């Protein structure tokens, strides 16, 4: 066995699955996998089982999860002993690196690692036992190579052997398979990453072959230095050029008899396949080809060249005997005319002086058979032959084995033995008693003269011409191969091309197809780099043999071309610190007994259960034991959710009691009900003056009547939601229960007068779970918090361009008050569902059957909109009542004498009858008064009526002829139309399959046309399989089922009478405002009726119709699917509000919370934190998320264009954890308030004045200005004033900040009569610290007390008498004896100070501002107070 044969046998590989090889050429990805060590209990288990002399080995194989198929060749590591170190886990160290490359870039392509224990028995026989296996994913969900080289990864190991992956119950993904059991406390330490240096040896190294760094590859030099890894930086051996001349092939017993026997066998095989008698058609040889290439035992170094051979007798008859004139061998002289000769020289530039390199020859015949009389598929051209090819013989010869002879004779091979082309080869003569030499000659021989570039001395003109042809790019020549052939079709040389190669022969149905390149790939240049010498694809063509034209253009630039002109992107650094997405914390406190007593005495309405008994009160601090089975088994399936808004209280802000709002209102959204905006509620004191002076004392909420007075009814606001089986979809009961268990209700509290947001509160809904009880109720005291944004140091000028100079925006949460809320859930018995079909719930079946039109058309009206199931009854209708255009043309009085008048109201019918009788009496009297006039009138009227009837009949006849074809076509379309209803929710993908059947007896390619972009066909098999797992659909999945047409319309191939399931997905991201107004709670102005309305009764604005047409060639439909989409409201998990200057872009980064804390997130994700995806309902909003790496948090980035003030932009963002965006785990609602921007630059403690221009509207308005920070921003006029229509008026502002930095203050101008927002401003305050004149320090006791009185002196630096004002930044800690004082020139004044006590120990810096009569800062003192 030669070296080449040995290498070929040692590296035999299992090909990939046949469906994986259907696609075109793909770029191969190179990998480097380092297997370091195995640790864990599985090693200790083998050691304790009594085994001795145990060694361990790793085995690595490639596996296709989709097709349950192992491919490539299993790599085995060297055997390693067990290392046991005290106080350390048991381990086996391997430290071996594996290299491979593959073009199957699909997420289901994995590498399977098996840990094998090998022990020697007493008889010396080794026993191997699998200890476990693991799965390494080579590509992510985007089909990108996995790069885990940043740090070592621990691979989980499973019990059993990799053969478990072949079990039919095994499903993808592996991590979710219940049959896969993880070995506890055991793992394999490894790294895997792309290895680009491997691309330089792709021409020597076949794909899907796993090799270690120390393995020798023919054509590759050994590694340099101490390392033994030749793949780390591979180096190629020097190539030489070989020349083959005087090539001839001799077949046994002679060429004529060999070909005669071959043709006879092929003809018999053709008749056997066609199951027919001899019809006079014969099989003829059209062409003889020889494939010549260099093979290194692993693969072809370059694409084999294709040359055309000619019988020696034909060459002699053509006066081309120059080839024979050069022969001197007596053996050739005796066999003149019985050989196949090559009339040109072969250049092989890729040869390497290595014993494993061999020259490969493959003899191939092209056959033609004339078409029979019954053939239908033959074209009408003059070419009436179908061409197909067969490999006849092959040979391999290693030129550098010490042979000194330049004349080479190599025996040919045939039969079933493996060959590098992986094709079936014609049989060899049967074995006889002859010797080996005789048997070799019986198979045939190939003879040629070989020389290298160093041995060339004489170059003829013919050789120069041949060399010139070799240096140019040669057209590729197709070749015959089986479906599993991995070799190439391109040819870099094609000498002696025949005319038949430039023509196309139609393919016969009963002959094998001729293989050729599917596209028009460009052949590689002769001197192309070896990394570019990849194998082009194979394909089939029904047109026969075609030689592609040579591509004379230069090779395209590599991926690095022009790389120096590209800017390198730096790591993304957000300008702003991300905002936490947790929003308002859903934390509630149990009200104190004093608060409960005051609230109970206020007279709030009592909540009773279905038995008219008081509802049990639940403590909100008690844990909730949630059992879904207990909730679903409850007899009381109807849930009456009650929300009672009871009272509201304010808290101190920096120790200062803030102003109470007079009225408030609330906005929120419960479940998938529409958003709610409550009416304004008045805040009323509950106790005497002492309680009213307490800041913590709540004020009761009282409804306001239409006249502005307080309502005389019960205090508070009570809202009810009825969630019963008639409201919920089938299967939605479980979703609603999980919503109550996991979600929180976010409530926004607004000032009813200023229309400013007071804050937001959140309450957990888990206390609404009844858990088998009749009813539950809980009282909550919720913190109302507001989010404020501040910036420490503004960035101006060129600081933005410097790295690290941008200070992040600070986000501060300030508690503004507390909301007293009562939640209750009262159970009721479920009402019976309406019996009307339109109110029935939709079918949850995911498979939509098509209408079978083979039974014929059932009949019906041509003008009916649809046909019902069962018996069809049609009633004749007048054409004038069907078509309004026709009714306008008709002039007859047929409508008056019609036997079936249109139904009309009673009043209209009585008026019409009275007018008709009156007109008849008038005509009768006129006929009586005129002698003979009555008869004339009747005759004239009758003639006119006949003329009108005749004209109308002509019009009707023309109308019927015009609409006949269209009506019949519509009726036929109805017979093949199937209607399916989809109940869609924002962001959720609705998956279903349509059973499409081919009604014809011939195959068809069906094109699918959809008239709406939100409905699409799922063409990706991975996405299809993902949705089938989610919906538990058991229909089959087909790989590469669809072909995308040029206009991206999917096409599917159907066999006769075949039925396939077409997967569809409907998903919308557009929020329809009409959907949110569909249903509201009871207790508001919409009334009780709307709350009880059925969600299935959708209006015209909520329903859309999508038509899907399945068309064959010519645009003829074979089935029509009518998808009716009923849009349903969605759940809002969180609400964000941003205030931003008008006509500018808002850019925000929102940090996602840990994924496992999100409601609805899957539990037990094995691969760590999943990647999150976002989609926005507004296409004009840029919304994206970026994964910063393993262990790093994820942020959502928003870029929103703001509108003019006071516009509010609303949109939704859906967050997903799966790449196919099946169902969002969270839906966020965003409000962007666009405000007019005002920039103010000021000093702490100093009053800064400015004015705003107010422009009146078309009507006179009574307005008032409100501010979010009344202690820092004053307005003038302060009260209500009149804004004249179309007038201009100034509003004066005074800003006195209490601390340095940048902050936002909101200013609203509100119409006090209609409570409408007239205008709104965003005051951006940039404040700096004043210069300190003096500093003091004082120590005070902490923990309460009476405080302390101190004095400081101030000297008037001016010669005249001056008036000064005193201010401080901490009015809660420091009070002045006098807020203003007057002192003469040069005199000293003593300022009295009183420091309030502090309950906490620490330090505080208090500023004392001394301002002049214009309120400008003269001096500032700093007092450092130490509380001990």
Concise overview:
By secondary structure, the protein is mostly beta strands. The N and C termini lie far apart (about 95 Å).
Keyphrases for this structure?
1428 residues; 66 strands; mainly beta; 19 helices; single chain
The coarse silhouette is extended
> Helix- and strand-based class?
mainly beta
Separation of termini?
A: 96 Å
The number of E-state strands comes to 66
Q: What percent strand?
A: 35-45%
The radius of gyration is 45 Å
Mean pLDDT: 75
**Quaternary structure annotation:** single chain
Low-pLDDT regions:
319-335, 372-384, 457-564, 689-693, 791-809, 833-844, 864-870, 893-904, 1074-1080, 1085-1101
Number of helices: 19
- Please outline the major beta sheet: 20 strands, mixed
Considering DSSP H and I runs of 4 or more, what fraction of the residues is helical? 10-25%
Structure in words:
By secondary structure, this protein is mainly beta. The chain is 14% helix and 36% strand. The chain is built from 19 helices and 66 strands. The strands form eleven sheets. It has a 20-stranded mixed β-sheet that branches. Strands 11, 12, 13, 14, 15, 16, 17, 18 and 19 form a nine-stranded antiparallel β-sheet that branches. β65 and β66 (1417-1427) form a beta hairpin. α15 (906-929) runs antiparallel to α16 (933-975). The chain starts with a helix and ends with a strand.
Topology, pairings included?
Blueprint: H1 3-10, E1 29-40, H2 41-48, E2 54-64, E3 69-76, E4 80-81, E5 91-102, E6 109-120, E7 126-137, E8 153-158, E9 182-194, E10 211-212, E11 239-250, H3 255-274, E12 283-295, E13 305-311, H4 312-317, H5 322-325, H6 330-333, E14 339-341, E15 346-352, E16 358-370, E17 385-397, E18 407-411, H7 436-443, E19 445-452, H8 461-471, E20 515-516, E21 539-540, E22 579-580, E23 588-589, H9 593-601, E24 617-618, H10 628-632, E25 638-650, E26 663-668, E27 676-677, E28 681-685, H11 689-692, E29 699-703, E30 717-723, H12 732-742, E31 744-751, E32 757-764, E33 775-791, E34 809-828, E35 847-849, H13 879-882, H14 884-889, H15 906-929, H16 933-975, E36 977-985, E37 990-997, E38 1004-1010, E39 1015-1017, H17 1021-1031, E40 1043-1044, E41 1050-1054, E42 1059-1066, H18 1073-1076, H19 1087-1091, E43 1103-1111, E44 1117-1128, E45 1134-1141, E46 1145-1151, E47 1173-1176, E48 1182-1186, E49 1195-1201, E50 1208-1216, E51 1226-1243, E52 1248-1255, E53 1261-1267, E54 1273-1276, E55 1281-1283, E56 1288-1295, E57 1301-1311, E58 1316-1328, E59 1334-1340, E60 1348-1355, E61 1362-1368, ...
Parallel strand pairs: 22-46, 24-33, 35-37, 36-44, 45-51, 51-58, 59-66
Antiparallel strand pairs: 1-5, 1-9, 2-3, 2-4, 2-6, 5-10, 6-7, 8-9, 11-14, 11-15, 11-19, 12-13, 12-16, 13-14, 16-17, 18-19, 20-21, 23-33, 25-29, 25-30, 25-34, 26-27, 26-28, 26-31, 28-29, 31-32, 33-34, 33-57, 37-42, 38-41, 38-43, 39-42, 40-41, 43-44, 46-49, 47-50, 48-49, 50-51, 52-56, 53-55, ...
Helix pairs in contact: 15-16
